[in-house]
Amino acid sequence: MDFLPCSHTLAAARERNLDFTSLCADYYKRETLIDAYSVPIMPVGHPSSWVVPSDIAAWVVLNPKTKRQSGHPMEGRHVSSSERTTTQSCRRCGQPRHNSRRCSNPPMVNEGPRTIVPNDYRRKCSICHTIGHNKQTCPQKDTPVE
Question: pLDDT digit string (tens) for 10-27?
Fold first, then answer.
């Protein structure tokens, strides 16, 4: 066999009281690993101490020639067909590809039926919780609490 056994094979071998090592290729056994490193490994030393023939030392070896891939570089990664694609949009101005923290555009306002920014994302007054003013300009600011 030229492989490691799968978990199903190991379960069947355990059921039949077989030795697992008989199912593995010799390449994966501990004895093969020990035999591979039993031969002494000789260090090569510093390159200045190497004896190199003069005809080989005269060769000039350059880096391989590489060519940059043509076309515009890819932005991001390829999206799998099973993934949903969503674009990030700013809740302040409605523009795509940035958020409200990094927004330098003027804020969009709601103009009747042409709502660009949903009302859920617009700031509300902290006193009466309506959109269109803040607590400093709230008409209910100075009304007494009953």
Answer: 899 889 998 888 888 888
